[in-house]
Amino acid sequence: xxxxxxxxxxxxxxxxxxxxxxxxxxxxGATRLCLFADYEPLVFLKRPFSLTGHLAFNETRVPKRCPxxxxxxxxxSYHLPKYVHDFYNILDTGDANCPKExxxxxxxPFSGNCSAExxxxxxxxxxxxxxxxxxxxxxxxxxxxxRLDHLVSAVVPRRVQTLNITDHLxxxxxxxxxxxxxxxxxxxxxxxxxxxxxxxxxxxHPKKNSIDYGFTSKxxxxxxxxxTTFHDRIIQLTPELRQDFRANDxxxxxxxxxxxxxLAVFMLDNAKGxxxxxxxxxxxxxxxxxxxTDPILNINDEQxxxxxxxxxxxxPDEEIYDFRVYLxxxxxxxxxxxxxxxVVQYDRKSIASILLPTVHKxxxxxxxxxxxx
Length: 373
Hints:
Order of helices and strands: EEEEEHHEHEEEHEEEHEEEEEEEEEEEEE
Protein name: VWFD domain-containing protein
Number of strands: 25
Domain VWFD: 225-373
Structural class: mainly beta
Radius of gyration: 25 Å
Strand order of the largest sheet: 12-11-10-24-23-22-21-20
Distance between the termini: 66 Å
Number of helices: 5
Strand content: 35-45%
């Protein structure tokens, strides 16, 4: 069976977005593969990761039409431990420079003694659930599922004749906080494995991976008065250190000091907000007089934007833009600067981070620069 050409595209789920994969049919009919999927990422303390949809493949003579069968319907999700909400609510690290609120940022601003391991019980995935339903599969696929059924039935501790994997496949993987064991249940048959794989949702988040592997990044992180520079130095900010980088009622955290600056991040005194220069515009978020339900952003002292359920970008209504600002699923203020690839995160209180491609590091000045020792 010959495929002429295949095209696969998978988009992040937003309401009813659909991802499809197609092959272009030749004149006499061709095999087409179609994938429909809805995707929702895990949001800390709010919802689990989920991926649902179905895969269909068959020969078709109708252009741009997906076959109905054979079909594989899938539903996959993973989640954090059930105790996370209660544990988070009572957690007190006792360290103002390592508060639990850093977990709202992605990736969190871990540094020094404030490491990912400190919060591992809150961010390590403890369970995965996956279900697959098979409809009218070709004989070669059924034979493979038969072999899988025999293999799993043979290793399940209790004696079973068949697990009916040729019809459906339900997999549940569970780990517990108190031991290093993993329980894998396949269609009701449980296999115990004396080891576990720890997946830290915050530490290995796709956003961090895309930054690390798409281009090497450096971080500036400010947690209350603890600053981590682009050169991985940890500094306790004092009024004397801030003095050299003051501008009115702000101090300069980091800025592009090249001949054509593209970014500057100022923090307002006494943790009162943040001011960001980008693309010839000033974006200001002040904590004073803010309501949690209506977070207001000031653009150039000319425009007030309510960020609740809104993404502001400049220029507006353009596919190619200089920057955009929004609140993510964890209510963190995010500014994405397309001019130099920087991403600024601000928890709207006292925690901020800047992710920047390494190629721009030598152009930066401010408290993050090499002048601080």
